[in-house]
C-alpha cells in the first residue's frame, strides 16, 4: 500500500494528474506499468484489473458526479453507511461480496476503508463528519487477522495452519478465506465490547473506541513489528477487492 502511494505521489510530481478522473480513466496498460514501476525486483500485480477499476470509477464520476468524488461525499450527507451504499451501488469494483453456505456475504473491505480514511483525514469534521462511524466493521484483509492470530485472538486448525505455512494461494470466496475474514470481523467487535467493559469497570472513558480504531491499531502494530509477526503465517489470495 505504501509503495502504491509513493508511486502515485511520484507520478503527480512528474505532472500526471492522478487525482483527475478525466486523466486516470484513460490510462493504458503501458501507462500503468510505467507509473507503478518498481525500484526493486518486485512488481505490482493485477495491472489489467486496475486499469478496469480506474476506467469504471473515472467514467462514473465524469458521467454522474461532475468529475469529482466530492459530489459523492456530499450526497452521502454525513453518513458513512450511506456512502458505502452509494459507492457499492455506483462502482461495482467495490462490491466485495461472496457466498458462504448459500448465503450472500458482503465484507466490503475497501469501501469501509474509504469511509474510515476520510473520517480520519478530516478528523471527523467537514466532508468526513460521519455521525455513524461506529457502524463500520474492521476491514477484513489478510494482515489484521495475522496480528489477531499473533495475539491469540484467532486460532487456526492444524490443517489450515499447514496450508498457510505452505503459502497456499486461496481463491477469492474459498471457504477458509471467507471464514478467516468473517471471524476477524466478529473478533474485532468482541475486542471493542470487552475493552469498553474493562474501561467502564475502571471508571475510564472508552475514548470513542470502535472497530475502525481496533483495525488501525492492529494494522499499524503489524507494520511496525513485521519481523516479529512473521512467525504467524497469513492467508494469500489475489483479489481486486483486497
Brief summary of the model shown:
The chain has twelve helices and four strands, in the order ααααααββαααβαααβ.
What report would you give on this structure?
The protein has 242 residues and is mainly α. Helices cover 55% and strands 5% of the residues. It contains twelve helices and four strands; from the N terminus they run ααααααββαααβαααβ. A two-stranded antiparallel ribbon has the order 1-2. Strands 3-4 form a two-stranded parallel ribbon. α5 (70-76) crosses α6 (80-90). It starts with a helix and ends in a 5-residue tail after the last strand. The relative contact order is 0.10. The model has no long low-confidence stretch (mean pLDDT 94).
List keywords for this structure.
mainly alpha, two-stranded antiparallel sheet, two-stranded parallel sheet, 12 helices, 4 strands, Q_salvage, hydrolase, Queuosine 5'-phosphate N-glycosylase/hydrolase
Overall pLDDT score = 94
The amount of helix comes to 55-70%
Q: Compute the number of strand runs.
A: 4
In this structure, how is the largest beta sheet organized? 2 strands, antiparallel
User: Low-confidence runs (pLDDT<50, min 5 residues)?
Assistant: none
Sheet with the most strands: spatial strand order: 1-2
What is the overall number of helices? 12
| Separation of the first and last Cα atoms | 11 Å
Bulk shape: globular
Query: Which structural class fits the helix and strand makeup?
Result: mainly alpha
Helix-strand topology string: HHHHHHEEHHHEHHHE
What is this structure's SSE topology?
Elements: H1 2-13, H2 21-24, H3 29-35, H4 47-64, H5 70-76, H6 80-90, E1 97-100, E2 103-106, H7 109-121, H8 143-151, H9 158-165, E3 169-170, H10 175-201, H11 211-224, H12 226-229, E4 236-237
Parallel strand pairs: 3-4
Antiparallel strand pairs: 1-2
Helix pairs in contact: 5-6, 6-7, 8-11
Amino acid at each position: 500500500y505504501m509503495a502504491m502511494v509513493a508511486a502515485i505521489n511520484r507520478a503527480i510530481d512528474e505532472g500526471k494528474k492522478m487525482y483527475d478522473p478525466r486523466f486516470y480513466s484513460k490510462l493504458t496498460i503501458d501507462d500503468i506499468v510505467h507509473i507503478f514501476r518498481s525500484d526493486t525486483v518486485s512488481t505490482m500485480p493485477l495491472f489489467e484489473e486496475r486499469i478496469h477499476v480506474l476506467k469504471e470509477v473515472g467514467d462514473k464520476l465524469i458521467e454522474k458526479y461532475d468529475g469529482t468524488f466530492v459530489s459523492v461525499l456530499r450526497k452521502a450527507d454525513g453518513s458513512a453507511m450511506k456512502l458505502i451504499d452509494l459507492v457499492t451501488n455506483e462502482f461495482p469494483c467495490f462490491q466485495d461480496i461472496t457466498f458462504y453456505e448459500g448465503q450472500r456475504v458482503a465484507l466490503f473491505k475497501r469501501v469501509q476503508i474509504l469511509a474510515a480514511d476520510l473520517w480520519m483525514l478530516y478528523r471527523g469534521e467537514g466532508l468526513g463528519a460521519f455521525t455513524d462511524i461506529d457502524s463500520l466493521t474492521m476491514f477484513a484483509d489478510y494482515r489484521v487477522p495475522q496480528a489477531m492470530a499473533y495475539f491469540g485472538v484467532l486460532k487456526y486448525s492444524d490443517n489450515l495452519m499447514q496450508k498457510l505455512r505452505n503459502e497456499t494461494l486461496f481463491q477469492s470466496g474459498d471457504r477458509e478465506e471467507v471464514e478467516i475474514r468473517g471471524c476477524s470481523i466478529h473478533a474485532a467487535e468482541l475486542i471493542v465490547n470487552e475493552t469498553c467493559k474493562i474501561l467502564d469497570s475502571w471508571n475510564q472513558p472508552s475514548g470513542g473506541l470502535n472497530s475502525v480504531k481496533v483495525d488501525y491499531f492492529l494494522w499499524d502494530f503489524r507494520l511496525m513489528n513485521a519481523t516479529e509477526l512473521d512467525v504467524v503465517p497469513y492467508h494469500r489470495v489475489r483479489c481486486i477487492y483486497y
